[in-house]
Write a structure and sequence with these properties.
With 331 residues, the protein is an alpha/beta fold. Helix content is 45%, strand content 16%. It is globular and about 60 Å long. The model has no long low-confidence stretch (mean pLDDT 91).
Amino acid sequence: MRIIVDAFGGDNAPLEIIKGTQMAVEEFGTDILLVGDENRIAKCVKENNIRLKKTEIAHCAGDDVLMTDDAKCVLKQKADSSMGTGFKLLNDGAGDAFVSAGNTGAITVGATLITKRIKGVKRPCIASVMPSAKKPFLMLDCGANTECRAEFLYQFGMLGSLYMKHILGYENPRVALANNGTEETKGTPVVKEAYALMKNADYNFIGNIEARQIPYGDADVVVADGFSGNLILKMYEGVAKVLMNGIKSVFKRNIFTMLSAVGVLGGINEMKKQFDYKEYGGAVMLGVKKPVIKAHGSSDAKTFKNAIKQAVWFLENNLINEIEKAFDEHE
């Protein structure tokens, strides 16, 4: 398999992106097509003494897509950027999947209007694997659609269930709708309408879920509009960091607390890994014709390597075909 990579997307590009691709080559054996200005890539590789393996460079010299750019810039003003070129290469079959840590809006536009939607999918969404006290769950939408119709939320549940079944191997994923109460009568008109659709769905809908229950792992798929989902995602990550920093500060207070830390260090490290977003690398665009992965904007090499892992999972499990088949049967 060949993964197309945006070399100039994200806060730490291109160095951490390049390092992450090489970690992916070592771990997954995948081929890499690195997209961006060849001279800037060569300079970074030389200055950091990196030996590229199983990697080709697709040169483009357009301006980088910035985090502050309008989402539609990838279609016209910056179509020749590393991101815009990456989407075109994916569309032309030069690679099997595309990974970028760049502007979320631009990735959403590129995935929707260049890669295009799977037949029957009304709105692609951003889905992020997240940790819980029990096992990982999938949160969607995490920012692609700030406002949703009920039928979009219904389909997100379907997409999320397929992901968890075919990628993470959950036999009958529990799908819940994020809400301000568990009662069927709670929520906005859109959420209540979505509930009515989802309770008759073919997937395993278990009802509404309140935000405080999400970290306990009470659902395998949590569905929300992109505005709410993005808020939950970022709050989740922020609280995890605050808690881990708080635990560190407690054990560093004096010699006695430092000595006591030795006895629980193994457990703390396990908990840190369990709630570390870097273990999952980023989010996936569900509902488009080819795998598109949105890596965290602040990705370091390890995080970006794990974003590529998401692309590998997509391809190894043929998820696109499973989604197409499910939506064909649903119509």
